[in-house]
Amino acid sequence: MDALEIISWVALAIGILSSLVILVDVIRHPQMMQIMNVVWPINGWFFGPFAVWAYYKWGRLKAKDNNREDRRGKPAKVFLSTSHCSAGCTLGDAVGVPIVFFTGMMIAGSTLLAHYIVEFTAAYLFGILFQLFAIYPMHPDKGMRSALKEAIKADTLSLIAFEVGMFGWMAVVHFGLFSEPPKPNEATYWFMMQIAMILGFLTSYPANWWLVNKGIKEAM
Fold it and tell me: Where are its TM segments located (predicted)?
């Protein structure tokens, strides 16, 4: 086992442990917005201890049993909006990877292109679904169709921005970092994906800021 593989296993273990820490707490202190009970643990997987810190600093303020005043500023609220988007993308990407791997799928002779298309499609579906679970409970009187339209408007740009960061890193990994890119049955692959998710979050944050400023998306 080389040094990178050891680092990969450690990073994955930290991510999983962070997710479990958050999961245990959201079970004890459920969020007012139910979808955030799923969002926070997912973000723990790639943001690790930072996600745990952000959850206890900002996420716990939105627990049903919280009595503290919510004094989060706009940067923190946009952070939560981006976290919500990122969790949907991450789940979609995690579903898409094994589909491509186990089917041996290639598009135009490229495995990477197959990953791009399948994972973007899955991420988009999960991203819209996550938005729908956020928007519809806030405005049930407007109906499901209206909520779906709002979800598409709110998530499309932020999701594309997320995938730009993520896919960019995947291209670097595929063409630049390794003579033979790691495969999904290797720890190194998922460590690279953790980095991809972080970069996707960073490229999505400005898009979410703009969407919130324009009133297209509500700050969470």
Answer: 6-26, 38-56, 113-136, 157-177, 189-212
- What span, in angstroms and rounded, lies between the C-alpha atoms of 53 and 83? 13
> pLDDT tens digits, residue range 124-170?
898 888 888 777 777 777 777 888 888 888 888 999 999 999 999 99
For 35-82, the pLDDT digits (tens) are 899 999 999 999 999 999 999 999 888 888 887 777 788 888 889 889
CB 55 within 8 Å of CB 22: yes
Q: Position of tokens 């679904």?
A: 129
Q: Which of 195, 197, 173, 193 is nearest to 184 (CA)?
A: 193
* Spatial contact of 74 and 40, defined as CB atoms under 8 Å apart: no
